[in-house]
């Protein structure tokens, strides 16, 4: 069945790139509503933007959605991942600024809020997007691929010259609360040289050592070090899960990312939907529902989160 939150939940903080404070309120919504953002600070123009793949403006740094009136919301990937990981399909997210707060750089605070609010089942059937044929996009040594699979699975590889990150790979089934236990507290990461370059361009204005893992060669500059030895690849998986959630329904398939990022994940979604032979909508029975992210989530899963 489709779901929504049992009650509304609020979050406040500063945007990573804009440095602007914002408050967002995530409210329950009816079946078929999907995930929709509404800019409460906008007047005179259409203020709602559906969190769908065809509204995504390609960016290597974050995921930004924009409607036909030019109203946008950026850095949606972490809250989208939290909604997907908690199995929430329908909400209205009211936000009073252009960028979702970065909070601690992960999705953990969003997950705590959603689990605390509770998830309510709606009297409406859920369909999933079943991948029927492999689709892939390649850019140099980076690639993103969706392929058929019996359950949602992710296989991600990163490779950085910095010794603090290096080469990391992780493969994961996404059901039974694994997103909450193993991915949701992994923070965004960057190199100190990248921070300097972004700030020179007027970006990362809200970034600090407390809302991102910053590395310099073999050193982790952020206080407390890493939450996981492979926190970097876990965060990349978190990002990909949020970006895939813009498909509009859970994806039944395997995502394989090699040095990929926000732009390539959106590109592989566009490749998937470009040909009807690549996918189909499939009714979600109880056996299939048990394989989806959000299935088996319990409050105790949060005990394993930093």
Description:
The chain is an alpha+beta fold and 306 residues long. It has a single domain (3-304), classed as lpxc deacetylase, domain 2 (lpxc deacetylase, domain 1), CATH 3.30.1700. 21% of the residues lie in helices and 30% in strands. It has seven helices and 21 strands. It has helices spanning 77-85, 108-117, 178-183, 192-200, 231-244, 262-273, 286-289, and strands at 3-5, 9-14, 21-28, 35-39, 48-50, 56-57, 64-66, 72-74, 91-95, 119-121, 127-131, 135-139, 142-147, 153-159, 167-173, 189-191, 213-216, 219-220, 251-252, 254-258, 279-283. The strands form six sheets. It has a five-stranded mixed sheet, with helices on one face. A five-stranded mixed sheet has the order 12-13-20-14-15, covered by helices on one side. α4 links the parallel β16 and β17. α1 (77-85) crosses α5 (231-244) and α5 (231-244) packs parallel to α6.
């Amino acid at each position: 069945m489709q779901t929504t939150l049992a009650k509304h939940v609020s979050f406040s903080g500063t945007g990573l790139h804009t440095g602007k404070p914002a408050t967002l309120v995530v409210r329950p919504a009816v079946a078929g509503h999907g995930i929709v953002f509404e800019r409460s600070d906008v007047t005179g123009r259409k203020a709602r933007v559906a969190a769908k793949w065809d509204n995504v403006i390609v960016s290597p740094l974050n995921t930004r959605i924009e409607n036909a009136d030019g109203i946008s919301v950026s850095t949606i990937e972490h809250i989208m991942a939290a909604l997907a990981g908690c199995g929430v399909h329908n909400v209205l997210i009211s936000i009073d600024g252009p960028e979702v707060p970065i909070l601690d750089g992960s999705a953990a605070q969003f997950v705590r809020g959603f689990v605390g609010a509770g998830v309510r089942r709606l009297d409406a059937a859920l369909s999933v997007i079943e991948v029927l044929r492999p689709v892939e996009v390649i850019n140099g040594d980076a690639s993103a691929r969706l392929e058929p699979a019996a359950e949602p699975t992710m296989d991600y590889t990163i490779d950085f010259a910095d010794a603090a990150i290096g080469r990391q790979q992780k493969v994961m089934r996404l059901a039974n609360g694994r997103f909450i236990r193993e991915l949701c507290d992994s923070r965004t990461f960057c190199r100190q040289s990248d921070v300097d370059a972004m700030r020179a361009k007027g970006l990362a204005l809200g970034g600090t050592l407390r809302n991102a893992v910053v590395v310099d060669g073999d050193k982790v500059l952020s206080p407390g070090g890493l939450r996981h030895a492979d926190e970097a690849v876990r965060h990349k998986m978190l990002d990909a899960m949020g970006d895939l959630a813009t498909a509009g329904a859970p994806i039944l398939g395997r995502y394989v990312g090699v040095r990929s990022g926000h732009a390539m994940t959106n590109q592989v979604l566009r490749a998937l939907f470009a040909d009807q032979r690549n996918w189909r909508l499939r009714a979600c029975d109880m056996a299939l529902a048990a394989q989806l992210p959000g299935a088996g989530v319990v409050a105790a899963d949060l005990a394993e989160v930093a």
